[in-house]
Amino acid sequence: MFEPLLKERPEAVSKVRAVTGDCSELRLGLSASDEATLVDNVSYVFHAAATVRFDDPLKSAILLNTRGTREVVELCKKMKKLEVLEYVSTTYCFTNVPVLKEQPYPTDLDWRKMIQLAETEDQATLDAVSRKILDFQPNTYTFSKALAENIINDHRDDIPIIIYRPAVVISSMCEPFAGWLDNLNGPFGIWAGALKGLLRYSYGDPDVALSYTPVDWAIRGMIVCAVAKAARSQALSSTNPDQVDVVNMEGSQYEKLTYRTQNEDLKVLRYCAVQPLRYPGYHMTPCATYYWLGTLCSQVPYGIAMDLLLRLAGQKPRVVAINRKIVAANAALAYFMINEFPIETGKMNQLHFALHADDRPDFGMLLNDPNSHFVYVRLRLTRVSVAVIVIVTQSAFFFLTYCRTNGNTQKQLLKAPTSTCSMKKRH
Fold first, then answer.
1. Could you report the per-residue pLDDT of 58-97, keeping only the tens digit for each?
2. Positive or negative CA dihedral for 376, 382, 388, 394?
3. How far apart are CA 264 and CA 9, in angstroms?
4. Are 327 and 198 in contact (CB under 8 A)?
5. Residue 38's pLDDT is what?
6. Where are the bilayer-spanning segments (predicted)?
7. Phi, psi of 82 (to 5 degrees)
8. Which helix (H) or strand (E) element contains residue 161?
9. 2 located within any domain
């Protein structure tokens, strides 16, 4: 990812200094010397550290995502040159509202009491009451992030602070190149499993639109929001001065990309899947019964058979374990794949148009075509199609040349049917 930068400006690496820490620990696990360095020198803070696992225990999620945010705020209060603290949240932390507006929302539980509960109670006790505590929240991740937003809002008068909510982060639009991604979280994990032939069925509504943000667009938004907050931009002016500034970031605000559209892309991509374990075939259904029947009849028997073959080959069985992880991931994502959550993005649009014309190519954040970030896929398919046409054309040319050099084609077929069949097999 950083190769272009290292080639163009190798001296830039000298500006980076890593410090050892842990956001789940008090004082962020920083040493006294590292903390002093941060307090004396840092002016912009982007707090994006979090556990993004939906099935994390409640205790772990609160200590890392919620208490960790409190510790970051306390550190920022000491910073001598602080211009802005930007908290990176998620557009899914308040799924109970009809439309997620660019404003903070209260939670029924106080973040102070929840941190105290996580610090004093053991994990088993919290797990026993987690469903009651979570209330409308689908998982511990969104719950702990919602509490963290309340921390940020409560400290809005202490330091310059802003909440930035990106949607589902997917592969890059432009930088470092179109289609770059370093993990298989979210929808791309489903695509990878489907193209490998492992995932056959998933539970979700094909007509639900995915709220997404290309990863480089998300980073652009982070930078623009921080600079705008430090400069007190009018684009961030809140209708309620008693609330923290909040910016929602979604790349699909003009045209929606549904799961059905993605599934159509998968039907094309299966012809150029790289080393699939079996022929790809993927179905998304909103019917839980159909999903479980399909999974039990297709994925489970295949996994058992493959593991048996691996055992006979003297290798460790792993396909059933992979299928188990796929089913667990689908269960965690099902709530977001079966429901649609409208998002308001007015401030992000204003920030985009407030940019100078010279800065928009590098920091612009409007994405009009939801399919445009798949340009690398279409380029690849174009190359594959051209290659297939060239191969077929060459094969036909060589076949006709062979027939002409050996006499009339029709006579060849009548006189030597056996050799002709052999020739067909070879070609």
1. 999 999 999 999 999 999 999 999 999 999 999 999 999 9
2. negative
3. 42
4. no
5. 96
6. 384-403
7. -60, 125
8. strand 161-166
9. no
pLDDT on residue 252: 64
Percent of the chain with pLDDT over 90: 38
Helix (H, G, I), strand (E, B) or coil at 3: helix
CB proximity list for 337: less than 8 A, separation 6 or greater: 202, 203, 204, 205, 208, 259, 284
**CA nearest neighbour of 75 among 118, 110, 23, 149:** 23
Element (H, E) at 349: helix 346-354
> Residue 91 is which amino acid?
T
What's the domain count of the chain?
1
Q: Which amino acid is at 239?
A: T
H-helix or E-strand spanning residue 162: strand 161-166
Q: What is the pLDDT of residues 322-369, one digit of tens each?
A: 888 888 888 888 888 899 888 988 888 888 888 888 888 888 876 554
- Which domain does 410 fall in, by range? 383-426
User: What is the rounded distance in angstroms from the CA atom of residue 312 to the CA atom of residue 103?
Assistant: 59
Handedness of CA 133, 134, 139, 140 (dihedral sign): negative
What is the pTM assigned to this prediction?
A: 0.80
**What pLDDT shows up at residue 387?**
42
Classify residue 411: in a domain, yes or no.
Answer: yes
Mean pLDDT of 252-274: 66
Least Cα distance to 299 among 317, 321, 316 occurs for 321
Give the DSSP H or E segment for 306. helix 300-312
Does a structural domain hold residue 134? Answer: no
DSSP E strands, 201-264: 201-203, 209-210, 212-214, 245-249, 257-258
Asked, for residue 157, whether it belongs to a domain, the answer is: no
d(CA 261, CA 387) in angstroms, rounded, equals 26
